[in-house]
């Protein structure tokens, strides 16, 4: 009788352990534990964004500077100009950026045009106006055709 009683207790415990394991699996599925860092002390991929970024050092490009030290040549156009024509930048070796104001303005204008053109890909051949949608562009071209028909 004791043997039957021991077998019944074992069976009862196995059932309870099975039920507890089911509850644990359910909890782990719905409430996952936070990821532990890898054993080799590397950060998980998502953690890299939380680190502070270091400032990159100014790229030093040799420039031709005049003997008096009051002028230097531009990286882009190559013309030697007075230091007043360059934006001040404490991070650069000589305290000024490498391109003159005119070249920087040209580059900024090119960048603005490129951004505007990418937003409006349809260009009218007659007047050069740009449009963001094909429908509006076609309506505009129809106006040019109507003007031609009237003349």
Question: How would you classify the helix and strand content by structural class?
Answer: alpha+beta
Helix content: 40-55%
Query: Strand order, biggest sheet?
Result: 1-2
Number of helices: 3
Poorly predicted parts:
none
Main beta sheet: 2 strands, antiparallel
How big is the Rg? 36 Å
Mean pLDDT: 76
Q: What is the CATH C-level name of one domain?
A: Alpha Beta
Outline: elongated
Secondary structure: number of strands: 6
- CATH architecture of one domain, by name, is 2-Layer Sandwich
Q: What multimeric state do the chains show? A: single chain
**What is the helix/strand order?**
HEEEEHEEH
CATH topology of one domain: Wheat Germ Agglutinin (Isolectin 2), domain 1
Strand content: 5-15%
Distance between the termini: 116 Å
Structural write-up:
The protein has 151 residues and is an alpha+beta fold. Among the domains are: 62 residues, Wheat Germ Agglutinin (Isolectin 2), domain 1, CATH 3.30.60; 30 residues. It contains three helices and six strands. β5 and β6 form a beta hairpin.
